[in-house]
Design brief:
Layout (H helix, E strand, L loop, with lengths): L10 H5 L16 E15 L8 E5 L2 E7 L4 E8 L6 E8 L8 E5 L5 E5 L2 E3 L3 E4 L8 E3 L11 E8 L5 E9 L2 E10 L4 E4 L6 E2 L5 E9 L5 E8 L7 E9 L5 E2 L5 E2 L27 E4 L5 E8 L5 E9 L2 E6 L19 E10 L2 E8 L3 E8 L5 E5 L7 H4 L8 E7 L10 E9 L15 E14 L2
Antiparallel strand pairs: 1-31, 2-3, 3-4, 4-5, 6-7, 7-9, 8-11, 9-10, 11-12, 12-13, 13-14, 13-15, 16-17, 17-18, 18-19, 19-20, 21-22, 22-23, 23-24, 25-26, 26-27, 27-28, 29-30, 30-31
Length: 460
Amino acid sequence: MHTLRFQTTFFSILLALCCCSLAATEAKPRPAPLFAVEKTWEIAEVPAAFPVGFCLLTKGERQFVAYYDAQHRMTVAARTLGSDQWQYKVLPSEVGWDSHNYITLALDNDNHLHLSGNMHCTPLIYFRSAQPWEIETLERIPSMTGLRETRCTYPVFMQSANNQLIFHYRDGSSGNGSEIYNLYDCRSKSWQPLLNKPLIDGEGRMNAYMIGPQLGPDGWFYLGWVWRDTSACETNHDPSCARSRDLINWETLSGDPIALPITINTPNTLIDPIPARGGIINGALRIGFDSRHQPIASYHKFDANGHTQLYVARFEAGQWAPHPVTNWDYRWEFTGGGSIVFEVRVGTVEPWAEGKLSLAYGHAKKGSGLIILDEQTLQPLGTERAPRSYPNEIGRLESTFKGMRVMTTSDKNGADKNGTRYILRWETLTNNRDRKPPEPHPAPSKLRLYKLKQLAAATK
């Protein structure tokens, strides 16, 4: 059970935030940039009956969009910046109704395009362009290393500390999986294992659902994960964390070396001993940082009364110190398998103002916004409306079909040096546990690309 792992960003949540402040925080938040839509492109029509993640990648003068078209065919569109002419390439892969099967892109150091996706416990699906930048030369590569490539899920391309292309994915399934990392060599145009074993191994008894690795402001890569025993989402447990300088040698946050693979028995990685059926779900763990670059985990679990609460935990005095930051009277009872609609969402802890931190949240019954925390004690000071830095038209639902929502994806490379940003937007029904929803289905949605120009900075 999982939804669009990282491909659809937390920006989608923030677009819907509408919570009014419940208590004054007297915090002067760091300014948020304001943007206006400079230009819009309609790229294609895409499925609207189920959500699945797309990818947007801009580098240099070239821009790429990977998506499924209205016929569920994997497709790549590309253009040169400054041009309105799009080039299209339909690839020999079709998605069914599974929301796990997002698409992701990367460019290597020689600007060959790499694509992977449409995988949920299936053999590896991977394409690479024979020529730099050219999507017309994308071709299916049947294997990377030939090792553990028959039950792949959650493909991720990332850059190492020295800017080499890395690909990682889960081998196996819910309750029985391992995390595999490969390293790309541009000279030989080939992949090799980054490690001689999985980074995390469920040993046939469980699997890890990961957040990251993400490069922190202190130069360390941080990896957070929750363990899960079966395909049932209520069997998630034990949020954990480790760090690395090079993605090869790993250690606890106390600095103790970790022998790979990481397992449930690896010592001193546990953030909070939450048992199975204790109220944590994969996708509910985030790793943020305070103003001193100390990592802070955010997540949810059941409290002593059985209600769902948000918690933050900072690594202090050699151990993780959890702190509850909500006092809700609501229990989110999630069960079963397949992609579901999240009733509670948690963001990352970030600096807000001097001596204060913010934590974004969304709640089906309690609304959404920012929880303001005292940086020293991590105690909640109140809530604030989440700042809207993007134009309202991006988040405004256009379809009148019942159950539709707005989906967005940010550019993998972020804003350019002039502050220009690009956002993909489309509309779909919500998750339906990866099954075809009952008819009638909504008409295909318009996949639009927005170019946003930064205007100014605001305090609210």
